[in-house]
Amino acid sequence: MEKEEREFEEKRFIEEVGVLFELMGLPRMAGRILGWLLISNPPHQSTGQLAEVLQASKGSISTMTRLLIQGGLVERVSLPGDRRDFFCIKLGAWPALLKQRMGQITAIRELAGRGLKILENQEPERRTRLQEMHDFHRFFERQFPLLIERWETEQKHDISH
Predict the structure, then answer these.
(1) Range of the domain at 40
(2) Shared-domain flag, residues 56 and 121
(3) E-strand spans in 7-152?
(4) C-beta separation of 76 from 66 below 8 A
(5) CA-to-CA distance for 17 and 37, rounded, in angstroms?
(6) pTM reported for the whole predicted model
(7) Which has the least CB within 10 A, 10, 54, 112, 120?
(8) Is 117 left (phi over 0), alpha (psi -120 to 50) or beta?
């Protein structure tokens, strides 16, 4: 792939990650930062580097990197001899993100359970929507930990071989 074509594809990838993460409820700029950090070389980037590549203000980059650090997706690192802070994708972030989602799944299941209690003596048709919401989230509440455990086991196995 020629340099111009690669740069175009990189920019497109960054924008696609930004849009995807925006659909998931994060600011688009946070997604764009993630997109660049996923493909950047070197993998650690300073605020200035991020601002230049993403054509954004340093203030916006600073705000969004703080958000990403709080979300556990990015970490701040320092390099010997350099006073600047750098940011990179936090290894292990994806299982951590899924574990955070577990809390949301549990909260939804509990809310549906409270709704079902309110409708305890009502006709089944009135309870159907809440029951489906409850059962769906209960299912994922049970399955996500097993999937995360399986992922971690496979990762350990891959590393040891």
Answers:
(1) 3-89
(2) no
(3) 45-46, 74-78, 85-89
(4) no
(5) 11
(6) 0.79
(7) 120
(8) alpha
